[in-house]
Amino acid sequence: MRARRRGSLATPILFAILVCCAAQGVALAAADDWDWNYNGVIGRRYMGDKDWAPFHIYNEIGVEGSWGKMDEPLMFATDFFTSQDSQREGSKTIQSKSYQLQLGLRKIWTFSKHWNPYGGAGLTVSKGDLEEVSSSGTKRGSDNAYGIWVGGGIFYRVGQNFNVGVAVRACLMDSYRILGVDRGGNSTNIGFVIGWGAERGEK
Question: Cβ contacts of residue 86 below 8 Å, gap of 6+?
Answer without folding.
Answer: 5, 6, 7, 93, 94, 95, 96
